[in-house]
Amino acid sequence: MQGLPVELINAIVENVSSPTDLLHLRRVNRTYLKLVTPLVFNKLHVKSSIQSAQNFQQVIGTADLATHVREVVYDSQLDDALEVADLEEALTEAFCAITALPNLDSVELNFWPSFISQSGKEVRESPFWFASRQLTILEAIYHVMKTSHMTSLSLHNVVMMPSSRYGFVSSLTNSPLSHLSLSVVSNAEISTWSGSKDINGSLGALLPPSNPTLKSLVLHSPQGSYHSLTTQLSSFHYPSLARLVLGNIILDQTPSADGVEAFILRHKDSLRRLELRSCASYVAGSPADARRWSSIWQRWMVELTGLEEVVVDGDSQGYVMLDADRGYVSHRPIGPMTAEEDTSSLQMFQDAVATRKVMTDCFYGAGQSTSDQNGDPPHSPACSTGSFKLPRITNHDVHLIQSIPIMETISKFTETAIPSINLRTLAAFVPILDDRKADIEKIDRKTFVYNDTRNSRNELDVYYPLNPTLTKDGKIPILVFVYGGGFNTGSRQLPEPYSMGYRALGSFYAHRGFITVIPDYRLVPEVHFPVASEDIRDAVNWIFNNADTIGIPTMPSPDVDAMFIMGHSAGDVHTKVLALYPPLRDTTQPRLKGLIWCAGPWFLDIEGEKFNIETQRYFGSQVQQKEREPRALWNGLSDEEIKNLPDILPVRAEREPRSLLITWEEMLSDIEKRRGEMPQTIISKGHNHISPNWALCSGQGEEWGEEVVKWMKARLD
């Protein structure tokens, strides 16, 4: 052993994992002592025994050993029943001394409300003694945090007590802590052990009210669900928090400022990764009053626009109720339709979050992080668009983007299915539109409420031309655009980083002389057929009756008798229903100049194809779908009614999904049969289902939009 090369000795040491064997190797000679000591004392385990506490203190008091300690792990499970007072004193002295560990980075405290008797049987410890020892050790550790440099603290199986017992927590406010993990004993475990259902206090009791360095927070209940009806998190804020993990945490039925959900949203500007493990929503009464996961996901999708990753395990999205005897149990009456809506909404949320990575991969290469160690985008100063951080587009990037043949890239996508091309298409256009933001926003935009009988999704945006096109009456023609979104998503003003999407579309047509109007409408699951089309009808009628309201004194008046309506995808379906469904077409006040139908299905039952669940929810049963789909409504009109319809301009992308191509051909055939001639059509060359609208104002792929403008102007003569 004496003559072995240092490299070989080092290899031997690295392959020994047993602490006992390593301690034996330390005694071989000075070389082994030097190599082994950092490994042996890098991580110290402290047990709930007086001897272990004294050994720990001895290491702390030995400078040559203390310098190697990076991590301390405490396990409170007793080897036998001890004199609690003596043990608490020994542990307190030991943990108060860890300030002498100059390189300590992490402390992990594992509390177990039981001990192993001499017979080997697990025995529940007295709740009083357990809670007392837990408080003693926690107070010692938190006291140490005032001066310690450690950055990670993990507390496992904590029995939460009333907040008044944790007055020492404020010491964490100015500590250099970057990671805090808090695992609490579940409500069921507490009641079984202590006989009390009220012992669990607020999760916030062990959290510092603030901390400027905290980046990672884990709140977990490993043995079962934890629900504190007095969570009391309203005053907590960590400006650097980037990762939040919730495990077995129950969300309140009614969101409040004190709740976990509000805590998540309060950190939307900094949060980059969110993990939910076996989380549930609390149902206090009727299932109809439950806080649906679908509404949670949809809210988070809109507000948590800074997220780069969201992880939800298969056991989350559950619903629980409080049973007097069994504690929190699964709430069975929540039906399969709710589960489908929850799953669908979660998928949309995850897709939206994934867009950030796709965008980064497109312009910085796969695997390139959007932030450096300081949280700033690579190669650039920190920048933020709203609450969503994007890589700043430098002069070099602008030149690169402008030189990219974006339509060549789009046309090479081999897939045509919407889920496959959605994110990649957006990732291609978002930076280009962001670069053109100043030009896009030269067009004034105003927002109006078109239906004051309800409180949501009742507004429309009006875009005003700089150089208006004039009708023969000297007024400005109007284009109403109805966006798509699969019947259950969409907004006239999209969140960052997509905010330029419909803003660009409105500006494109306004730049070409048309007052452009984009209304919101209600979505699945809130509404079903024909409510979305009724909302569009109400918006159109409001425009007709409020020309003076939307007009600008320095411009010619809007011409409500020269109004066109264009819908895309699901929005196209709503415009078709508006024009073809008698209860709606007969109550639409203006005589529309033209209908522009863009890439929406003509019928829903296609062999070998299946429309998404939201389509089925909107139209109803299979029988109802066949009665309500656009082709059925078309066939239900008389020849005279067909003849009196406005001119129709069908528009589609060159690379639409198979289902839409099939219905497109059938639609053209039906129009030709009933109106006596094939309508003029526009096919957007190189485009997929998503890209045409996003190309407007990008400088590339806009030709189809110019053709639409030409078609509309021809009908003003």
Describe what you observe in this structure.
It is a single chain. The protein is α/β, with parallel strands linked by helices. Among the domains are: about 1-40; about 375-435, no CATH class; about 435-715, Rossmann fold. It contains 27 helices and 23 strands. The chain has a 9-stranded parallel beta sheet. Strand 2, helix 6 and strand 3 form a beta-alpha-beta unit. Helix 4 packs parallel to helix 6, helix 10 (about 295-305) runs parallel beside helix 11 and helix 11 packs across helix 14.
Q: What descriptive keywords fit this protein?
A:
single chain, alpha/beta, Rossmann fold, GDXG_lipolytic_enzyme, AB_hydrolase_fold, BD-FAE-like_dom, hydrolase activity, hydrolase
- Structural class based on helices, strands and sheet pairing: alpha/beta
Q: Strands of the biggest beta sheet: in what spatial order?
A: 1-2-3-6-7-8-9-11-13
Shape: elongated
Q: Quaternary status of these chains? A: single chain
Mean pLDDT: 82
Strand content: 15-25%
Contiguous low-pLDDT stretches (5 residues minimum) are: 360-403
| CATH homology group of the domain at 436-714 | Alpha/Beta hydrolase fold, catalytic domain
Computed CA radius of gyration, to the nearest angstrom: 32 Å
Domain BD-FAE-like: 460-572
GO molecular function: hydrolase activity
InterPro entries: AB_hydrolase_fold (IPR029058), BD-FAE-like_dom (IPR049492), GDXG_lipolytic_enzyme (IPR050300)
Protein name: BD-FAE-like domain-containing protein
